[in-house]
Amino acid sequence: MLWTIAVILLVLWLLGFFAFHIAGGLIHILLVLAIIVGLIQLFTGRRV
Predict the structure, then answer these.
(1) Does this model's pTM top 0.90?
(2) Total domains, the chain
(3) Which residue, of 27, 36, 38, 41, has the fewest CB within 10 Å?
């Protein structure tokens, strides 16, 4: 589930970076948050 959200945010970030330069700042913040949450889950989450 979290990986799906991270991929969606990555795609939105790329769209924002290339197409919608105005909303790029917000998408960058969301991408950074997704990476931080992903790393936290990777190191502290349970193994599936």
Answers:
(1) no
(2) 1
(3) 36
